[in-house]
Prior knowledge:
Strand order of the largest sheet of chain A: 1-4
Radius of gyration of chain A: 22 Å
Mean pLDDT of chain A: 84
Largest interface: A-B, 38 and 57 residues
Shape of chain C: elongated
Helix content of chain A: over 70%
Oligomer: heterotrimer
Order of helices and strands of chain A: HHHHHHEHEEHHHHEHHHH
Largest sheet of chain C: 6 strands, parallel
Strand content of chain A: under 5%
Number of domains of chain C: 2
CATH topology of the largest domain in chain C: Rossmann fold
Amino acid sequence: xxNTNGQAIRAFFNKMKSFRxxxxxxxxxxxSVIISxxxxxxLTVDNLKTTAIGMSADGIIAIGxxxxxxxxxxxxxxxxxxxxxxxxxxxxxxxxxxxxxxxLISVAICLLxxxxxxxxIGKVGINPFIITLGMMQMARGVxxxxxTGSPQSLASVPEAFSFLGQKxxxxxxxxxxxxxxLAVAGxxxxxxxxxFRKVFYIGSNQKAAKLSGINVSKTKIGVYMLTxxxxxxxxxxxxxxxxxxxxxxxxxxxxxVISAAVIGGASLSxxxxxxxxxxxxxxxxxxINNALVLLKVSVYWQQxxxxxxxxxxxxxxxxxHLNKKSLKTKKSIFTSSNAVINNK
Amino acid sequence: MKxxxxxxxxxxxxxxxxxxxxxxxxxEVKTGEVHxxxxxxxxxxSTLMNIISGVFSPDNGSIVFKGKPVRFANPNEALMAGIGxxxxxxxxxxxISVAENIYMGRYEKGPLGIIKKKKLFxxxxxxxxxxxxxxxxxxxxxxxxxxxxxxxxxxxxxxxKCKLLILDEPTSSLSDSETEILFEIIRKLxxxxxxxxxxxxxxxxxxxxxxxxxxxxxxxYINTFNVSDVTPKQVVENMVGRELNDFYPQKSQERGETILxxxxxxxxxxxxxxxxxxxxxxxxGFSGLIGSGRTEVxxxxxxxxxxxxxxxxxxxxxxxxxxxxEAIRQGIxxxxxxxxxxxxxxxxSVKDNVNVTxxxxxxxxxxxxxxxxxxxxxxxxxxxxxxxSDVAQQINSLSGGNQQKTMIAKWLSIDPRVIxxxxxxxxxxxxxxxxxxxMLRTLANAGIGIxxxxxxxxxIIGMCDRVLVMHxxxxxxxxxxxxxxxxxxILMASGQ
Amino acid sequence: MKKWLLxxxxxxxxxxxxxxxxxxxxxxxxxxxxxAAEQEEPAEAAAAQVEDEAPxxxxxxxxxxxxGADPNxxxxxxxxxxxxxxxxxxxxxxxAAGKLYGVKTIYGxxxxxxxxxxxxxxxxxxxxxxxxxxxxCINPDAYIEPIKKAMDxxxxxxxxxxxxxxxxxxxxxxxxxxxxxxxxxxxLADALGGEGDVAVVTLPGQLNHEERCAGFVDYxxxxxxxxxxxxxANGGGEQTTAATAASGILQANPSVKGLFCTDATSGVGAxxxxxxxxxxxxxxxxxDTDKGTLDAIKAGTIEASIAQGxxxxxxxxxxxxxxxxxxxxxxxxxWEEKGINPLPPYIDTGVNVVTKDNVDAFYVSE
Lengths: 344, 496, 366
């Protein structure tokens, strides 16, 4: 009798261990417990709520970034797309266009940016680093040109719009709700839908994907349009949250989001990653920041500590998965580990 | 006459987490002997070689080299002591010259630390002379073909005055004429008193150039024979542990209608005037030297690469595939010769690898039906006898043979009507080879048209009903029945 | 043709060409707006080129242009992060002064927050041989050599907003940042009735922000024993980061009643933070006068903002450059040879506190 119970528990733990995100979830839990003792205001509804609001913009973008990482690339332009998206909608509104139409225009333009990236990366085959870096500059430049550098204040915007970024629905801030919905949808689609499965194949071995009949360029175009789309949504929500369209909005986002996705298990070489992991990564990074402020750590130390924790988290994750793999791949490690020279 | 052994290894045991790779294995190599080491994948050959060459140390056992007991801490020590190892996947630096590769780490330098290039090239030329080859010392290694690169690797070991040279599957990428040159080199080494430890699956070669053969199976030492005292069949039976009746499945005489016809097929500077037809139930072979254009023809027919002129008639319709995906939908597919780089998704599961070609087919409204995923994999694991405990495990944990079977399963999943198989049994052990051969014949009998591209003549002759031979982009001949002999095919392959 | 005729003919050709050049120079006004009518007289001065113009200037005084000069004289204002709104105020003042003198003013700078770019742009402008340069220095030491180079080439240089004190520049015009911090402290303390806890959201590591923060903290400490600055957070110069920092402060310190933001973006973030943490009773004192901040003051979400004298920075910088260029300043005989600075070396352009009462005056028309 007790044996089967023991077996069941052991089976549960084994399943949990192989559940890739388990390490990072555990890290978050342990971290939260420790901090809650050191900073009494940490586990309050208010604090968690505002932290959640603060991470939603990054989180929505992290969804798209995970897909880009899995495809073997990444998108450095997301911060600039966030900025230009909020600016286009703001400027359109101030020019007399209905705010919702302004949002549609903004999303459409950002999708065009994504299409541009996707064509150059997917069809022409240029390295995503260069293309998205260039787009990062371009989109930011457009934001400056459109606003001539001045933040656009949306003082009189209709309430229905400011609701998005500022109000609650069923006790949850709407912006957080959108994030959760997108994250859940994204995670399910990543695991179970065919177009996203193709992204995995492409990231794992692009040549083999092509030789298995997958339309690599079409899929990659879709990937970069998706990252632009999510960044644009994030920009509109930011516009609603602050009521001001600043051309500098979103700066620095791309690095934070890539870190979050990688902490959550996405591999920079492609073929690996989950949205759940990216979300947990975002949560961890934001909790760390929050803790540093609550613990009144000097601002000069905060960056140093954030960076150290990032390195620690990634290293622990890497090591814990290395052990599992080494057993199964003994042959491939030990039989031939030399460079293969292609026969011409 | 006392036998003089250059290498004796006894009671060698090695355990890795979870498996025992070697149990009490022994091997003795005489001075001036060519000694073959055979065994299926997983038999322990690579592990034994790695121990001898210093890649890792054994848990137990002794190794005596040139009369002295040795324990190498790393490959460099073994190399310096006189054991050279030419791996199956070569370890040369493609961007630098032959001479620099051979003398890597041992360059003679002048006063300012500048390498004495003249002397380097002269020394290299001395060594290369042994091989009767046209390789120049200053040539970049990446510009050489595989056979030449292999010679450079051997030269590297010889320049270190090695007494024992270990060759791991040396002929897997060589043509027949290049193999002959290699054998000449091996015979010369033997007459110079250098021993060669020859790891291979190819019985023909072993019986051609080796003196003795040691068989390992499942980590155990089985036996050592003199080549002159034993038949290939006996050796294979020792390797496999069971009696083998036939190497190749029986050919069938039944033929269906013509399913594929290729006319005046041409790709500029690659191949031209390609005409052939394929009937259902037939296994057609494409033979020829490496570089003769066989792979290119197959890829062009399947729509992977473009072609400049010609016609493809498939199922009585003239077709032109816009892209490879369209060809796959129609039931034509191509199995690549390079499974690691172009065929498999090494970090994904076995399940994912099998289902990649039918992702859209098993999805409804863009969502993959996991039931169908599982069913498809289960079906082919069973049909092809793929040894895997859990289809969710990563594919790179499978042996080469099982990986190849998985790749075949991936193409069978689309219910193809025509399959072009490029080197279907490269780099896999005898047991799995036989299984795949049987399966191919079964598929043909079920009405699928199969084209086998292979550089292994025994495979071509044993499996195919008809063989086309290509040479430098043209078809130089077609043989079937009694005409299918090694001699005829080799003649056609070299252009006559 | 007789030889003695050639010389007069050549002379005639030269005079005609010179007049043609001068007349064509008159017709291009570029960024100079009001002085079109007054161009004829300065043409003479222009023909003799721009240097050492004291007599010409005196002459031109009759024409109506306050201090007449060659309309093609170019004065540059050079910045970093050149696209941001803050410099607009500075340039407006600079340009207005330029119009008074009837000369060209040009705005330039590096778009990024990057010292290499900024210095490169500055040096390229030197190569254009302008009449004077007013520059804001992203890093004090990086500009020492370039400014020296400009001054050695006869181009007067003054700095504004961010200084390079060891470069030998004539003068530095800026907000007294410490005093600004003190002004903010006084305003916030009065608004809170002299008691309660406050916090600061700032950009650590940037000198002007550090000074504002220090001014604020020291003033509170010295004058309000019932008040305490409980925490300082990094706004990161970006609104989302600033909002997160401000929320964090509010969560960590339930007693905080007031926030001081040393830059406008932190203010935007703070506004969102107080609404999201349900602490709308917290009073915010922000910095600068971009439209978003002014609207917030009007709406009551920001209590007040510290407006810098940016217009004045530009206006008086220009005056100094012009006077220097035209040798109109002479407090000490032979100051140039003796190495004495003729200008007041530091001008505090001061701050204003913008509140609901006077906010309308600060809206700038584009």
